[in-house]
Amino acid sequence: MARYTLLPFWYTTFYVAFAEGLPVMRPLWMEYPTEKITFDMDDQWLIGSDLLVKPVTAAGATTASVYFPKGVWYDIDTYAAFAGPATKKVEAPLEKIPVYQRGGSIVPRKMRLRRSSALMAGDPYTMVVALDGGGSAEGLVYMDDEHTLKHDKKSEFVVRKLTMQKGSLSCVRVGGGMEAGMIKNEVERVVVVGWKSKPKSVTVSVEGGKEGGEAQAALLLEFEYNGKKKVLTIRKPAVMVDENWTMVIR
Length: 250
What we know:
This protein is mainly β. The chain folds into 2 domains: 2-102, Immunoglobulin-like, CATH 2.60.40.1180; 105-249, Golgi alpha-mannosidase II (Immunoglobulin-like). It has 3 helices and 17 strands. The longest helix has 14 residues, at 7-20. The chain starts with a helix and ends with a strand.
């Protein structure tokens, strides 16, 4: 199930591999060359630069020893935070593979339960914003029609960049040339992990208004805050993934 929810992230990571030549699966030393402990580490790895994976291969094991590189890392299921560089023992029951999102990254996910990837094409996105120590994060989202196999022309895909700084989350187009409005996926939810206190308000505004219309006033959004986990969940922001928008948390 986790693999299906992370398909947008896999899709984007394969685009980066195509565009920049960076491998999809990476040894830790590739991203952390100054941490010598990673040089001969072959029992855990990264997907792109943002997800750390530690497979459990010992029969009957229910725990695992995970090395966390410098920075902060968040369990993708519980959002529990782990500070690196450090090696820590974590719970790893049969139904769970230890996977952690890097603080400072934004990972796109689709959370609807589906029987196949084809049924997910029009599903809304959840953007998981994992903050670093300075409260910042960024990430890419690659999108196309999810059907045809040839996407060597700019008009056949779009790349969006999300950036979180000082409580402001922006989404802008940075690549591709697919006509605006062809991608119909909405943003269903924004999850900000590592947010330190309950905000007073969350608003969102769309550049030029919806679908290029007249400018609209910032829309006040509903949210939930879990102080114990330091997780802010913003629901139904009513924006499309392929729109230029800004969300402000105060």
